[in-house]
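Page 42, continued from yesterday. The earlier attempt failed because a stray header line got pasted into the input along with the sequence. Redoing it now with the clean sequence only.
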Amino acid sequence: MLINQWCNIFRWEKATRLFLRTLEFLWQEGHTLHRTLEEAQAETLRILDLYVDFVENDLAVPVLAGAKPESEKFPGAVDTYSIEALMPDGQALQAGTSHLLGQHFAEAFDIRYLDEDNTEKRPWGTSWGVTTRLMGALIMTHGDDKGMFMPPRVAPYQAVIVPILFGKNDEAVLTKCRETRTQLGAYRVHLDDRTTQTAGWKYNEHEMRGAPVRVEIGPKDVAKEQCVLVPRDGSGKRFVPLASLPGELGKLLDEVQAGMLKRAREFVATHTSSADSIDEFKAALGAKPGYVRVHWCRSQECENALIDATRTTPRNMPATDQGKPGKCIVCGKPTDTVIYYARTY
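This time it went through. Structure tokens are written below.
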């Protein structure tokens, strides 16, 4: 049984933050029931991978994916997995979760199914979800002093055509702009043909709104059968023949998308440290706020001690980091469990 829904949620929050923690939010959540534990576990990890793929490849926000420690599990879950995003202020943002519920909820609500051997059995459950918090992650990850910067794959307008009007040959310019909009029908394109605002004013507005690419067309461009592509990432103008514009715009949008993810990953890499002692942990966090990677013996006592000493919280344990021998950062016992800590919202 596979159930997916989108709905608005109200919940009590003592302190709200726009997008990140609001009294009302929109979320997507799933609830599934499976015949075996193995099928439920596979579904839990499949959804986690789906979230990673969407957030990284569409939103261009790199995430840390892994299992939560016992103290951070969803109440009633056997295992909880999360994706964590690191924001420009060095704080972590839990961007999505996927839970293996085992048979706990099937037992609590007396859920049964008739198996192929004609006997009633309890199913194994999962639950998972993301919310409009992803919008906060996108805005904070890519925004700058000019405003928003939307990844091309999710931008409402992938390109904005801005006519350069001087009072002469304006109709010819506008006609060419309309033809260009039609020519770019495979993309999400907006023609800003307002005559109440100057071209410079439009440039600033669409940069603030985060349009990935601006297409400029003026009288000289009409005469030369060309246009000027200006990417939002500041990599410089490109003069492109109108005949080859669709292909060139597609290449540029791919470059912008890849560049946004690359820059975000570089930020995470430079704001991730490792520590073998609490003093090293504090020094690393003080020098460059972000993730701190540590070895942990999996005891609640050591986790509590580290939280109290550093005022951070455990984020998750990525599968690719496990199995590397070390010593618990608190008690010094040998362990091969690696966990990431950070300050969070």
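Notes: The chain has a mean pLDDT of 96.
Reminder to self: strip header lines before submitting.
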